[in-house]
Every structure is written in C-alpha cells, then in structure tokens.
Amino acid sequence: MDLMGRGQPILIMAAAIIGIVLGDVTPLGAAPSTAVEIFLMMLLFVLFLSVDLRKVSGSFANIRFTGAALAINFLFTPVLAYLLGIIFFPDSVDIRIGLLMLLVTPCTDWYIVFTGMSKGNVELGLSILPLNLILQIVLMPVYLLVFIGDGADMHTASLLVDMAVVLAVPLAASLIFKRAFGTHERIWNALSEKGDHLQLLFLCLAVAVMFASEGDTLMDNPAMLLELFIPLLIFFTVLLAVAQAIGRGLGFPRRDIVSLNFTTLARNSPLALAIAVATFPDSPLISLALVIGPLIELPVLSLISAALLKWNTKEGPKTSDGCP
C-alpha cells in the first residue's frame, strides 16, 4: 500500500474538516445533494472501469470458497448488521440505515490490497469481485425493505429508480469508455496505476462538499464517531472469527483463509454513500455514518492485516491451486 493508501483515513478526515470550514465561509454550504452525487458517480465510473463483469463465471472455479464468502457476506452479515443497529441505535432509524448500508456492501478494491499485504491468495480474492459487486447492488433494496421497512421514510419505487440512476450512469459510461479506448494500452496502464488515487480523490471531494453542506448536522452529533466505534469493532471481530472458523473447518490453506477474511471484512463505503446520497437526500445522518465508517474501518483492517500476516507466515507460506 503506497503513502496515499496508508493515509486514506487522514485524507478523508482532512476533507471533512476542509468542507466544514468552506461551508462557513463560502457558498458551498448551500450546495445541493446532487453536487455530492456527481463526485460519487465519477468515483463509481473509475471503479467500474477496473471491474470486468464478464469474469463473474470465474467466481465459481472454487465452489467452496465462493459459497463460504457469499454465505458470510449476504446471509450472515446483514443479520449481524441489523442486530448491531437495533442494539446500539434503537432510537435512530437513520443511523441504523447508514450502518446497514455500510455493512452489507462488500469491498471491491481495498480488500485486495490488504489481502496482498497479508500474503493471501490475491487471485482467489479477485475471482469473486464481480459477483460481490452485482449482488450487493441487487440486494441493497431488499435488505432495506426487510430490515428497515416502514421504519424509515422510504418508497420502494423511488429507491429503485434513484439507485438505478446513480449506478447505471457511471456503469454505462464505463462500458462506453472501454469500447472506445479498449485497445489503448497507455490509457489502461495509467488507470491501473492511478485508479485507486482517482477514487480517493473523488471520494475526498464528495466528502468535502457533503460536510460543507451538512456541517450543522455534524456539530449536532459530535460523538457519532465514538458511538459507531464499538459496533464496528464488534462487527470486525465477529467477522474475523467466523471467516477463520469456516475457512479452517473447510480445510482451506492459510492463504485462502486470509483471502476469505478480507473478502468478508472490508466494506464498500463509496458505493453505499453514493446510493445513500441519491435515495436519502434529506437524511444527512445516513450519509454521515457512511463517511465515518472508513475512518474506523481502515485502521482496524491495517491491524488485522498485520496479525494475519504473522499468522500466515508463521510456518512458511501456504499454497493453493485454487481448485475445489
């Protein structure tokens, strides 16, 4: 992980502080939610450029790994997220929605970095990326309806339309871009090298604009970072233990268990934030929870990565042919 990667939590926090200051002294404080949405859609455009959706079938090359990852990500995790929301935020539907949206979206980028840092099976982790992306988009409205339902001011038709717009536009743009510049090797080399930096840039811009327009909400909820710390710490601890137990129970090599750990631990906060801004523009606490999430998540994942690296290399690197 390069310097920008290691400093992502600091950069996000700096963007938030800059946004609050600009919101007080410039007209940016009156920026509409669509301004945040534009930057997030640009982020998603860069993200979709890096994902080859044609490789979804590759997820099934290792049936046991794919089955374990999908069961944890899309069956166990939503229930755990719902329980944490009910236990810690029984009186705040908005924070429960934000927490749920954060925790039911598996990461599509940073988890590969942490897998590599821990000497895990990167190729195996990459194989499930397209399937994770498709399922989290399809299942997001289902989770909101099942676990939140009438508890929020949410209309199913509007939710689906807003999600379709914020996701379909960058997806369509990425497909057009790939078709137009698919043979330009220099462009793709540059995107491969700087893609994560571009995603971070657009995320920071979105955070700055959001905090500029919602600075009052943050000032009214200064303890929210601390309030989210304990449930998120419980989430990562439980998921780490569950993935370790399942991986060992299925007889996975250590490299594969590390990959399973990060495939199920890391979360896709930019995607969730883009959906939240589009579908809940009048509920700033939801977006605030999704911005605060990575400030806690990334340092925790860094500590877990160091621990898994030590465990994974304790008796020498383990190998796997990636077959069932």
From TrEMBL:
This is Arsenite efflux pump ACR3-related permease. Its main location: membrane. It is a multi-pass membrane protein. The chain crosses the membrane at residues 33-53, 65-89, 95-114, 126-148, 154-177, 197-213, 225-246, 258-280, 286-309. It comes from Methanomethylophilus alvi (strain Mx1201). One of its GO terms (molecular function) is antimonite transmembrane transporter activity. GO terms for cellular component: plasma membrane. Pfam families: SBF.
